Structure of L-rhamnose isomerase:
Amino acid sequence: MSNKEQYIHEAYELAKKQYAALGVDVEAAIKKMEEVVVSLHCWQTDDVGGFETPDAELSGGGIQATGNYPGKATNIAEMRADLEKAISLIPGNLRLNLHAIYGDFQGELVDRDQIEPKHFQSWIDWCKEHNLGMDFNASNFSHPKADGGFTLSSKDPEIRAFWVEHLKRCREISAEIGRQLGSPCVHNSWIPDGSKDIPVDRNSHRALLKQSLDEALSIKYDADHMLDAVESKLFGIGAESMTVGSHDFYLGYAIKNNTLICLDNGHFHPTEEVGDKISACLQFVDQLLLHMTRPVRWDSDHVVTLNDDIKLIASEIIRNNFLGRVKLGLDFFDASINRIGAYVVGTRAVQKAFMIAMLEPTEQLVRLEEEGKGFERLAMLEELKSKPFGAVWDYYCLKMGVPAGEDYIQDVQEYEREVLAARSHELV
Ligand SMILES: C[C@H](O)[C@H](O)[C@@H](O)C(=O)CO
Ligand SMILES: [Mn+2]
């Protein structure tokens, strides 16, 4: 055992005693971390470009990957290598979350209304090889038929039919993914539809969206194979005045049609907290999907950090035993820093938030609350912030066979020198 490992073990033993004094079982918390399964979004590797054509780039949709850090993945082999590197530095259970634009098209131009399960077979095989479940997303952006600003809610029947067909195919692909991997594939539908300036006819677009969804979702799949999720949004770039798929719209749709509602914490008014919405939504829907991200002034999709937003999300799930009802996804794409490092920092931040939540003496806090002891509750919540969570986290990382503390930084740097530099002159 190295000196560093020795210190980590010693610190862990002391931390265990401190938490035990609060009535917290640290070993049980570490065991429970197995239930935290985070779906790793593939699109941080390549700035949401996709592999439909060699030079594919994110365009439209009201979202933007800013930055030009060298070394982005430009094909499936590079993307898989990057994901494998990131996974090797992240403890805990993961899944892969793929967008439809990342099919294995073998150089063939396959339009969105033509994609089939065969285009994703090599991804299914890769997930099987790496013991990962897989989730999937329709891609209603970066396409000429999305340029008008409306897809499933378009007033043009041809445009609408195209995107309904895309959604139908994505759901079929999802069911096949789930069937082969033996774990339900969550299919998430987010559309950019909306209006830059104040629209007059909001209602028709919403009625059309409902009609399109009803049509595409009329085909039923086994819930053991696929689950439908719909993702709401407040606004996008170029769709500042009205988003067709607003939260009210999709929450209503999800409740009525028994789908998951996807809550992206970049998609609400800045003072709204997604953590607060979890117990509200779960009174009315069976399950929900989260897109964990970090909005900075707008839905900027910065890399997740261990901030209050994420901590509240994790606490609400753990306090209420909701892990079985909430699917955990990530949604950030920062093109201004090392992209593998982005995955590692962001995913570990989410996992840290869950571990902190598991190290809380919740029953004791609830008792204080019920007894009306507001000062005592506040004091305990404050004191918990400086308990030795880091010692437990480092021990957990060692136990899971990944670098503890900041040690992963040098692994990422090494990968940048040895692999990413070969992709890009700026890094040589
Ligand atoms: C690429 C993602 O699917 C997309 O970011 C969507 O989930 C979203 O959050 C749009 O703002
Ligand atoms: Mn999202």
Observations:
- The pocket of manganese (II) ion (ligand 2) is lined by residues 190, 231, 264, 291, 331 (CB under 6 Å).
- The chain is about 40% helix and 15% strand.
- The longest helix spans residues 157-181.
